[in-house]
Amino acid sequence: MTTAPTTTSTTPAGAATPVVLSKSAESALPTVAAVPSRIDGPRPTTGVPFARLIHVELRKMLDTRAGRWLLIGIGAVIAVALTIMFFNEGGQHAFGEYLQATTMPMALILPVVGILAVTSEWSQRTGLVTFGLEPRRARVGWAKTVAALLVGVAAFATSLVLAGIAHQGAVTFRGITPDWTMDGLVLLGAGGYVLLGIAQGLGFGMLLKNTPAAIVLFYILPTAWSILGSMVSWLRDAAVWLDMNQTMQPLFEGSLTGEQWAHLGTSVAVWVILPLTVGMWRLTRSEVK
């Protein structure tokens, strides 16, 4: 009886049996590109320039559908106000009155642009891109602040030009007596009204990071405080220090005492600097999803 030869396997127990592919099967497999160990080219030695961050934040504020429609709305309100003043009372209004008609819509609506510049990072989920390209969030926050103030300066300069054109137009076409006189404090109050408004909106946006909540509270809280401060007797003393509508009024009248400057500084610290400070702190620590 012939015994069959025994074959000893060299593959360890439990190990996978190697599969041998034919040449045609090997050629059908997808080829994997080799990953280079180092990408050629110069390495960046600095971060994103701060000027570029400001430019990007300006684009976010102005070069969007919401930003454009807000600017269109401001322009329409100003055009209506100047047209009414041009024909009302024969157009006999001083330059300061025309300036008030151009700055008020900007001071009331422009803060929404500052709010959207911050809340869009969370509502439209652009924060992953923004903070991925620039992980230092404090620099992004400062870029938003500088960009918002630049928008405010440009808006106030535009309001000066429009008020001047309207007043000169009334002088030329309506025959009114020109009145270009304006106190320096009044001019400071008009510019501060625009700049502080947009800075306050930016602070509320950083603090809440939610567009509807930031817009609603931005308009409701100061208004409610002004109403309570004027109606409730035991809040009147506090309102003198904390109501920006009251503390900025002497600016528009062209005279401020030392105590009134202290009132103005306190109200600005509470309604502008405090939201910006706490909002900047939250901006650097909030989770981005």
TrEMBL record:
The protein, known as: ABC-2 family transporter
Signal peptide limits: none
Keyword annotations: Membrane, Transmembrane, Transmembrane helix
Annotated TM spans: 69-87, 99-119, 140-165, 185-208, 215-235, 261-283
